[in-house]
């Protein structure tokens, strides 16, 4: 049975339109699909990824049940070659495209919305036990060794690693929740100058919820600083704990060496872009000697 006929059977509706969506770094194939009644997003993955993809679908369901603004999970199924995740399609445009066109106040307001949605995601509690401290410490040590064998070198790398090592203990006894793990403006949809949806739970993980915020200063900051300020303020309801920034700085520092290793291995065409991004992070954080990144201004 053809892919199109399979979809019609699963949805029990005739399909009027289907087109491939060619965006992002995911290995999934994605399709926009329209019937007489509804628009859908269909993700097609290799059959050997079925277990992970089914878990991802269940996680997405739990987030939706927690009233997170996201596309509604409809069906998960598989055949002999592939597995399929079917969701409602959220119309609108990427937040990364919309935010630069808006006023500072509206960018900040969308950031507030995003922070509140992330808080809902983090209310999905983990059902697995995890020693977060050991997991992250060992992972960082591995990447530090791999970084030392890489071709790219970051100014002040030893200073960065010293900062990380001195602050490992901050990761002890952290709460463990669902992490979106790719929470930034390229994974958000806006419509009518409002946040419509948080999308793409492909990289979901379990761990300290604060870890989910580091991509604010890594990716979202490049698009809209007012949005980033709003996200932090919205997440904490304008009451940031005194312990937050030191932990945030630690998680931000801990992504630098993995980003170098990953970029060299997977996307070598983006090495220069990644180096620029790292320089921005180091300048924002004064090489992790400052308490609060320079882009943050309390709203």
Automatic annotation (TrEMBL):
<dbReference type="InterPro" id="IPR011009">
    <property type="entry name" value="Kinase-like_dom_sf"/>
</dbReference>
<dbReference type="Pfam" id="PF01636">
    <property type="entry name" value="APH"/>
</dbReference>
<dbReference type="InterPro" id="IPR002575">
    <property type="entry name" value="Aminoglycoside_PTrfase"/>
</dbReference>
<protein>
    <recommendedName>
        <fullName>Aminoglycoside phosphotransferase domain-containing protein</fullName>
    </recommendedName>
</protein>
<feature type="domain" description="Aminoglycoside phosphotransferase">
    <location>
        <begin position="17"/>
        <end position="236"/>
    </location>
</feature>
